[in-house]
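hey
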């Protein structure tokens, strides 16, 4: 950054051996490798001259020069991308390990910015046998989920069809990252992953249900309906958490909860029973819980149902019953005066004085 643009090319080509720069009150002596890295700061006509030098650097015999070129490649490609990605593809299989690592890091950086130019290379690296190369590619794909979600969805779609469990699981792990911007394509991917034969892939997909419920309730309801029937308890519980977020006034979500109260899995039944108060009024809730109690055997769920059937007004203690008979709040004095000025009575009318029988005696 401290090298002046006019000094970058002479330094990068070796025309000058070193160049002294000042940075934060210190002097530094820049070398050819620094000049090659500085090709990334060139602009205008100098950027096109720098592109040619970068191509030469990427083919240089010295591994350090090739690594320096890979450092500059992402920035130079924004101005002059010609041939650069072809060289990147070659350097991913360079004979020098350090160059290969630098190339993987470079691909990770450029994949989210140049999805078309790197599509084939990224697809190959995502399936590479060497884990470090595969991990770097998946990291780039993760960033691609934010910048070009439609392209990322295409990659994830193909990965979910692979025979490799590792690839399908890694692809499913990216579904949440593509969810916010992927639209209908992302919803389809979640649905397909929920049908995968591998339980871990389904678990990864089921983690998308709650975020999806906040965005698309209709789609989330359909997918939750499928997931709640899964054989894996973690997938089923993810479906339950999704239903808890859904608008239970929606008929389909309501039906899912009611059906879940009779599910064979205890955790699912308990989770659905806890949602019942959101669906029903007190009287209907008590009747429904009493019906469920006739079939329920799990003590925890039975206790939950019994609490919902309890009517404090009828079955409660004296204090609980009396709470329903609490006196009305006191009428403010100003309201009382206004009412009385209009000839109205506030509160209970005073009883007439007791009859002592005096008048009867006197008249008699």
């Amino acid at each position: 950054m401290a090298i002046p643009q006019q000094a970058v090319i002479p330094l990068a080509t070796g025309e000058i051996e070193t160049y002294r720069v000042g940075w934060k009150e210190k002097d530094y002596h820049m070398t050819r490798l620094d000049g090659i890295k500085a090709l990334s700061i060139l602009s205008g006509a100098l950027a096109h001259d720098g592109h040619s030098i970068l191509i030469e650097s990427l083919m240089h015999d010295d591994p350090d020069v090739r690594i320096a070129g890979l450092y500059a490649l992402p920035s130079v490609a924004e101005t002059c991308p010609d041939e650069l990605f072809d060289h990147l593809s070659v350097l991913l299989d360079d004979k020098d390990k350090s160059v290969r690592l630098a190339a993987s890091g470079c691909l990770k950086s450029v994949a989210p910015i140049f999805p078309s130019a790197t599509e084939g290379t990224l697809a190959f690296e995502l399936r590479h046998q060497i884990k470090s190369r595969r991990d770097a590619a998946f990291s780039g794909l993760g960033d691609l989920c934010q910048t070009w979600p439609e392209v990322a969805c295409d990659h994830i779609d193909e990965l979910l069809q692979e025979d490799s469990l590792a690839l399908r699981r890694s692809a499913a792990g990216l579904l949440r990252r593509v969810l916010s911007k992927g639209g209908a394509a992302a919803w389809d991917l979640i649905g397909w992953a929920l049908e995968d034969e591998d339980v871990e892939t389904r678990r990864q997909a089921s983690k998308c249900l709650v975020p999806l419920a906040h965005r698309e309730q209709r789609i989330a309801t359909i997918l939750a309906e499928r997931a709640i029937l899964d054989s894996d308890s973690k997938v089923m519980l993810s479906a339950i958490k999704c239903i808890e977020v859904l608008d239970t006034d929606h008929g389909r979500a309501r039906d899912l909860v009611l059906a879940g109260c009779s599910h064979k899995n205890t955790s699912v039944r308990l989770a659905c029973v806890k949602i019942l108060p959101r669906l029903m009024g007190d009287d209907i809730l008590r009747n429904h819980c009493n019906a469920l109690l006739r079939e329920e055997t799990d003590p925890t769920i039975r206790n939950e149902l019994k609490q919902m059937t309890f009517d404090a007004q009828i079955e409660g203690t004296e204090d609980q019953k009396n709470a329903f008979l609490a006196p009305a709040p006191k009428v403010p004095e100003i309201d009382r005066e206004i009412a009385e000025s209009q000839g109205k009575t506030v509160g209970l009318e005073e009883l007439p004085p007791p009859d002592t029988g005096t008048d009867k005696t006197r008249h008699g």
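The chain has a mean pLDDT of 87. The chain has 23 helices and two strands.
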